[in-house]
Amino acid sequence: MDALRALFDAVRDGRLDPEEAARRAFERVQGDPLENLEFARVDHHRAARQGFPEVIYGQGKLPDHIARISKAIVDRGHSLLVTRTNADAFASVAKVVPDARFHEQARIIERRTEVPRGRGVILVAAAGTSDIPVSEEAAITAEVMGNDVDRLYDVGVAGLHRLLAEHRRVVAARVIIAVAGMEGALASVIGGLVRVPVVAVPTSVRYGASFGGVTALLAMLNSCATGVSVVNIDNGFGAAAIASAINHLD
Amino acid sequence: MDALRALFDAVRDGRLDPEEAARRAFERVQGDPLENLEFARVDHHRAARQGFPEVIYGQGKLPDHIARISKAIVDRGHSLLVTRTNADAFASVAKVVPDARFHEQARIIERRTEVPRGRGVILVAAAGTSDIPVSEEAAITAEVMGNDVDRLYDVGVAGLHRLLAEHRRVVAARVIIAVAGMEGALASVIGGLVRVPVVAVPTSVRYGASFGGVTALLAMLNSCATGVSVVNIDNGFGAAAIASAINHLD
Amino acid sequence: MDALRALFDAVRDGRLDPEEAARRAFERVQGDPLENLEFARVDHHRAARQGFPEVIYGQGKLPDHIARISKAIVDRGHSLLVTRTNADAFASVAKVVPDARFHEQARIIERRTEVPRGRGVILVAAAGTSDIPVSEEAAITAEVMGNDVDRLYDVGVAGLHRLLAEHRRVVAARVIIAVAGMEGALASVIGGLVRVPVVAVPTSVRYGASFGGVTALLAMLNSCATGVSVVNIDNGFGAAAIASAINHLD
Amino acid sequence: MDALRALFDAVRDGRLDPEEAARRAFERVQGDPLENLEFARVDHHRAARQGFPEVIYGQGKLPDHIARISKAIVDRGHSLLVTRTNADAFASVAKVVPDARFHEQARIIERRTEVPRGRGVILVAAAGTSDIPVSEEAAITAEVMGNDVDRLYDVGVAGLHRLLAEHRRVVAARVIIAVAGMEGALASVIGGLVRVPVVAVPTSVRYGASFGGVTALLAMLNSCATGVSVVNIDNGFGAAAIASAINHLD
Amino acid sequence: MDALRALFDAVRDGRLDPEEAARRAFERVQGDPLENLEFARVDHHRAARQGFPEVIYGQGKLPDHIARISKAIVDRGHSLLVTRTNADAFASVAKVVPDARFHEQARIIERRTEVPRGRGVILVAAAGTSDIPVSEEAAITAEVMGNDVDRLYDVGVAGLHRLLAEHRRVVAARVIIAVAGMEGALASVIGGLVRVPVVAVPTSVRYGASFGGVTALLAMLNSCATGVSVVNIDNGFGAAAIASAINHLD
Amino acid sequence: MDALRALFDAVRDGRLDPEEAARRAFERVQGDPLENLEFARVDHHRAARQGFPEVIYGQGKLPDHIARISKAIVDRGHSLLVTRTNADAFASVAKVVPDARFHEQARIIERRTEVPRGRGVILVAAAGTSDIPVSEEAAITAEVMGNDVDRLYDVGVAGLHRLLAEHRRVVAARVIIAVAGMEGALASVIGGLVRVPVVAVPTSVRYGASFGGVTALLAMLNSCATGVSVVNIDNGFGAAAIASAINHLD
Amino acid sequence: MDALRALFDAVRDGRLDPEEAARRAFERVQGDPLENLEFARVDHHRAARQGFPEVIYGQGKLPDHIARISKAIVDRGHSLLVTRTNADAFASVAKVVPDARFHEQARIIERRTEVPRGRGVILVAAAGTSDIPVSEEAAITAEVMGNDVDRLYDVGVAGLHRLLAEHRRVVAARVIIAVAGMEGALASVIGGLVRVPVVAVPTSVRYGASFGGVTALLAMLNSCATGVSVVNIDNGFGAAAIASAINHLD
Amino acid sequence: MDALRALFDAVRDGRLDPEEAARRAFERVQGDPLENLEFARVDHHRAARQGFPEVIYGQGKLPDHIARISKAIVDRGHSLLVTRTNADAFASVAKVVPDARFHEQARIIERRTEVPRGRGVILVAAAGTSDIPVSEEAAITAEVMGNDVDRLYDVGVAGLHRLLAEHRRVVAARVIIAVAGMEGALASVIGGLVRVPVVAVPTSVRYGASFGGVTALLAMLNSCATGVSVVNIDNGFGAAAIASAINHLD
Questions:
Q1: Fewer beta carbons within 10 angstroms: which end of chain G, N or C?
Q2: Which is it for strands C228-230 and D35-36: parallel, antiparallel or unpaired?
Q3: Sign of CA dihedral F33, F38, F40, F42
Q4: Range in B141-155, C107-121, F98-112, G19-33 the model is least confident about
């Protein structure tokens, strides 16, 4: 309301034309100006509003489009993060953002800028080797967003000693991302060991009939451990964004 | 934006204090003032915004609460419409809105005021006798909202001649609400006969294993006839609201 | 019944042979003569009965068949509309209907003729860039059917200001088609802003695990806003046909 | 039991050794000897037990295996019927069964022998052009099994007059197979017109989101018409086998 | 068309007024006159059209309504059959149809008249004792419809010898109704033993987690035996109607 | 086959009439004579065939019926086991089987006789206090079937130390029954600790939205630990029967 | 490991017997001693391990059991929190914990002790009046766990202005719990407005056919806004535990 | 605890440094040292803990990785078992493990070493020819794990005599693995014939619409025969591991 008040003051003082003032007030309410690239509205103010600039979801987008949006973001001085992407898109992006990097397993293209650092460590724990791509999507996303990340992979509950052997790393984290497919029990076991928040990511790993991750999703939602919340199947990025938001709280 | 402009003009002309103007502008954007009944925010401006005042969904609400919200609505001179309600609630409402009426089969309490009349007739067609309660919810809602309603019940497709015998009533309607459970084929057959919009309402009638109406819902969504859109299972009220909105278009 | 009466009068007056009269009466009841192309019955009278001639659903049909049906429709002077089609089919159609046009993103082949104009504007609102193909299927279908269309894309609810900034275009429409995948909330938010009918189209956009559009479908069916009805997943054509039927009501 | 009695009589009379008799009795109970082709047990006695020899389900079987089983069946003088097959398999079969025929759309290879004729006509009704492959699977299967078949295609309920125009063919059938996808309403409408049994076949036609035929399946199971039973999605063969069994009843 | 021809001949010959003829022709097309009881359209011509008069589905209907419809049916000299009913309804019916009988386990009220006899025996086979109510619904329905019924209960496949011990009764039937819950395997095993049609009825027996009969339903639809078609869960009536239609074929 | 041989030998030796021999041979094949109690076929030979006499599933059976079947079983000298039963049934049973015992939490009535003892200990592990009724059904069933049972309750994975503290009891068992609702992770964790077979029982415990045990069922089926097989939701009896069969193997 | 080291040091120094040391080391690893109340293992060390003592899930537990567990917890000086409970349980608890309080709508019994305070405010936002019980479960749980809570109820997205009018309260929170049934869009809209973590709670509110909260659950999982994680349906307690864990991070 | 005691004794006797002792005690508790191949933790002690060394699940793993893990396992002298693999992987493995064998149909690579022999025969029964690949996965796994295996294929219940003819092989087994798709009835029928444990494997055979094996899975879980437990769809390996564990019990 302060901004509105300022506009009215300016009008009263004759510094501003009422019509222009109305236009600005309306615009203010409507939201921030958006850069219109014809095929997408790039929302540069998201950095202010949500703590990180717009992320490009690469799947289904043309390499050329990804490259053009990437350039627009980088030109503003923002960090670049493209998820669910591939080598073709990277070839296009690399032409306009030469120092961008491609992480094949994580399917991420990124170029980091200085961003505020998170306060603690985000632990990314993965149950099996098949969960690593989603885990890497989470880990790299978290790194790009300014967090220290500790990776703890292949610690599924069928061999409990593997997890318990790393107990100290588990309890040292400020936030934990637990990535698991199949029966998704890793989230419950970790949830029972710590007092910090655990963000669970079910994966669609195709061991037997896991219904594309639905079993792990349901299991994680029904976790008997407190402190576990869940994101969508294979959504490593989403988990990292939440973990980063938590890790950046003062 | 015109309203905003008027505020700025008033400030420029000294007719309005900037602070008060900012408050009004902010309030305008925020939405209309809401009457706060502690347990519910009654939204009296909905009549302006959506063409009909707030409707009370009765299920799960205490009779006393329903009565108090009813009174608040009637006191403003608005039409009263309580859906999914019962005789207990009506007993409470009748004390504070003496001329309210209760429709047992439709589970509706209503008290009508003058509202703009719809342009044509809304036909409510029901496949079987078990679909009548939902059909009546639709029919009475449509009437309260200012529409002429034609009821055509027990015209399911297993006895096609029953529907074809009333062909002229079908084609005379401006909008049609087709209510059916089981395999929900009535919507497709009617959709094939007319050019006006058909709003389909699947019902949870418990003939055999119809999965609480899901079969009819899916069948209606997959209708091979064009012109058929669908509302939620048993949502006679919603279908009537849509049909009324269509029927009130100039 | 008037037509039947005329036949009987003609027989009584000796103007018509009883056998021929019986044949005509029977035929009349049976429906309009259908052009039989061996692999499909083209229903030319649909224009009269449903307000628009038969539309060709292209998926799974051979290019040659599509071309032959297209020609039959165009030869009658009707508008041509082929949905869910591709460049191969267009190559075949273009040989027999030279001035047909192909819309790649919308997967539509069309050739317009004069049709009655709808009364107002149909707004097609899309939540994300991935919803644009389905939105274009809706928009072009609506245009071919004689409607003015306003496209409002990339206005998903996660960045609410993008939608609110275009509030005036939203309230100016006579019918609104809301296209969204994922959680499908756009329909509810728009439904809460307007009093005109909103036809919601869930899309099968593959962001995370949206179960092929089922989530958006269920969310739209459960919309807390009144005035929202729903068509099948990705059914842009169906939404446009309904919107056009509404927009053509007197 | 007569066969067992005969064995005991033979033993009493000294015509048969008890051990051999026990072996034969055991074998008799165990079932008929089966021709063992290593990768499949061909059951030649099925013709006696079930009225038609073993049918080869082609999907997932190697062309060479199909050819060898085909030859074994033909060598016994039985009719050959291979379903869900393709041109590759036919190439192999044709080498060993030169007068076999291939129906591409129905995906059937067959070679007919004299079989008992059914008593009436089996009508195969299909809702849309996309339902024709499954319908042809049913129709050709029924023909190979000795039935007269009447095909009535493209008579979906959205254009009811198309079905009503052929009312006499519908009521003339002794059994009806109703094939439909989407909302599957054809079975209900036909079921309401006749007193003979209707076997409904849901199809997985991919118009919109029909969940691979589940919607049609559920709709047919919930048919409000009596006399409708249902087989599995796309199971044209199964419907024909049932219809043929009915049509061969004395 | 013959009836139409007769009308035209009568008009030509001056025996019939054109208006009256048109009315009759229209009515003929529209279908048979229906007795309107306000809350239900009783369809007395169904006996002609479908081989058996209208059956009353009792669930959800008031006892008084059931009694009035029952009387209307009996007054016409038709057989009475009320399914899914109870003792309360029977008390009402008994007052107006004194010789009606109530079958508690089958939940049926019936009063038989002379109807055409079916040609063979309908075998009703039930897997477990919990399947008996649905089996009785089927058996009594079949009897009322004029069929000889053989009941073979408690012959589930977990004790295969119980079924095999009655092999001769199984193969003696002209049609078989197989009633089973849980894994529904009875239909497959019987289907493999006979050449006559088998109508399978899944039941919602609550042994463990059978998902209200869905497991048995799916299993029966996926039966590896040919000749098995399926009706809805617990739909003993529907199965009997189909079996009777088959058994009444010449 | 030995029994058949003996019959033939007897016939050859003139000790047996061929007709009587045939009858006996047929009967032998058909299965054992079953005691027919009108409402159920009691299968006394099951003890020989399956290692334990027929168990009475109490749910849905009348107390009087349960009592009569119980008496028939006890009169033969067999162990009595009635599952899913209640105090009413027990009152009836106690009149005819005075020394029967009722376990309220397990919902079991039983009377033990000497049965062969299993070789080792069956451990019944339960995740939470809500899983105890199903666990007790398993434990008591196993005891009645002749097994030593060790109960280890409230050892869910959210507090892993509770399970690990009892590690020695876990590894000492010959078979383990793991009972858990919610995310069902107990089976995986135990499966990873031992080399003996684990039979997992999902429970329908209503903590949050566990979909009646489906989540636990799916999780257990997708267990990342080898050695885990699964029975139906809440099927403590079934798990015990399997565990007992394993424990009785030589 | 420090504790283990201390034991070894004590043994080396002769201060501790090796056997006793081994026992203590084993016990330490096995977990903390648990108070065994026969029907439940109370886990008093959870306060240390997870930041809050064991919470009693009341549903399905006997009042007397709840009272005894409550007393054991209070006797240790811990905060008491019983969820999903009722007046009967409270009557029992009140006898042994006289100063316990019962919140009927939230179904919670609690008695607070000094616990560490969270750093910011937890906002609990609810879409409709029907979501209030779950919201109150969340709000009171959060308060008992030491957090300041701001309640913002009845701000569903169909009347967007109601939420926007409270924008400042939304952005002032450190963590947000968004509670909604039906289409669950509130979480997405709030997620788009803030940069702090949002924990979404789907509710099983029975407006129309929301499938017991599954629609809201799926919608929230598919939220197009980043920063939204989800807990189980109606799990207000779980959401509060997570929000509190976040709010207690340094 | 004995190992811990030994450490303490060693410290007391001065043979071991307390710090080193603490390290070893900690390590012991944490679990066995794991060979870290960067992309997977090979768990060589599993042979001791679970009776068989780690099995490599081949799907989704790179041939090179499979080869390197294979070598590590073989170098330790363990049996090698790679499941869900293919010819490419075998080419890589064969280079480093020259005497490994590839079973194409079973998709298994294996190299056997001496392992303890199971006590009896494991029967692998398959319903149809399409179930053979999964059956072979089970059979070869069981053989590699040291069991005698009897294969009984193509004995589905639709031709019951095929199974009954092999009755003696069925009852001779110590454990039975029943593999079936479609309606999965084989498990129930076999379960009714024997007293030994039956492990049921549903298959995703694509005959008709079996929903990827879900129908067979549900049917097997609902088996009316006792003694049947179930593993995941197509999980031949898992069934064999369980059967082997049972067969190796003393």
A1: C
A2: unpaired
A3: negative
A4: G19-33
Q: How many residues does chain D have?
A: 250
Of the candidates F210, F202, F219, the one whose C-alpha atom is nearest the C-alpha of residue A214 is: F219
Chain E residues within an 8 Å CB radius of C12: 11-12, 14, 18
Cβ pair H227:F50 closer than 8 A: yes
List of chain A residues whose C-beta atoms are within 8 Å of the C-beta of residue G238: 226, 228-229
Per-residue pLDDT of chain A (250 residues; tens, 9 = 90+): 556 667 777 777 878 777 777 666 655 544 333 455 545 555 555 554 556 767 888 887 889 989 999 999 899 888 999 999 999 999 999 999 999 999 999 999 999 998 889 999 999 999 988 899 999 999 999 999 999 999 999 898 888 888 888 889 999 999 999 999 888 889 999 998 898 999 999 998 765 567 788 888 988 998 878 899 999 999 999 999 999 999 999 8
Q: Residue D4: which pLDDT band, with cuts at 50, 70 and 90? A: low
Question: Chain G residues with CB inside 8 Å of A81's CB?
Answer: none
- Those chains having 3 or more beta-carbon pairs within 8 angstroms of chain H are A, D, E, F, G
- Per DSSP, D14 falls in state T
- CB of B159 within 8 Å of a chain E CB? The answer is yes
* Nearest chain B residue (CA) to D183: B219
Nearest CA in chain D to H130: D60
Q: What is the pLDDT of residues F87-96, one digit of tens each?
A: 999 999 999 9
Confidence band, pLDDT 50/70/90 cuts, at residue E172: very high
Measured between beta carbons, the chain A residues lying within 8 angstroms of F158 are 188-189, 191-192, 223-226
Q: What is the DSSP string of chain C?
A: -HHHHHHHHHHHTTSS-HHHHHHHHHHHHH-S--EE-SS-EE-TTHHHHHSSPPPEE-TT--HHHHHHHHHHHHHTT--EEEES--HHHHHHHHHHSTT-EEETTTTEEEE----PPPSSEEEEEESSGGGHHHHHHHHHHHHHTT-EEEEE-S--GGGHHHHHTTHHHHHH-SEEEEEE-TT-THHHHHHHH-SS-EEEEE----SSS-GGGHHHHHHHHT-SSTTEEE--TT-HHHHHHHHHHHHT--
Task: For residue E232, list chain D residues with Cβ-Cβ distance below 8 A.
Answer: 221-222
Contact of chains F and G by CB distance (3 or more pairs under 8 angstroms): yes
Most G CBs within 10 Å, among C130, C154, C155, C157, to test the G interface:
C157
Complete domains list, chain B, with CATH: 1-30 (no CATH), 32-43+50-111 (no CATH), 121-247 (3.40.50.1970)
- State whether D196 and E245 contact (CB < 8 Å): yes
Cβ-based contacts of F131 with chain G (< 8 Å): none
Indicate whether this complex's ipTM tops 0.90.
no
User: D108-111 and D80-83 as β-strands: parallel, antiparallel, unpaired?
Assistant: antiparallel
Mutate to test the interface with C, among G154, G155, G183, G193 (most CBs of C within 10 A): G183
Q: For the segment B20-67, what is each residue's pLDDT rounded down to a tens digit?
A: 776 666 555 443 334 555 455 555 555 545 567 678 888 878 899 899
Q: Who contacts F106 (Cβ-Cβ below 8 Å, separation ≥6)?
A: F133, F136, F137, F139, F140, F236
The neighbours of chain C, by the rule of 3 or more Cβ pairs under 8 Å, are A, B, D, E, G
Sheet with C56-57, strands from edge to edge, namely C56-57, C80-83, C108-111, C101-103
pLDDT for position A29: 47
Nearest to C50 among B195, B245, B250 (CB): B195
* Set of chain C residues whose Cβ sits within 8 Å of the Cβ of D164: 29-31
Task: Tell whether D139 is within 8 A of chain B (Cβ).
Answer: no
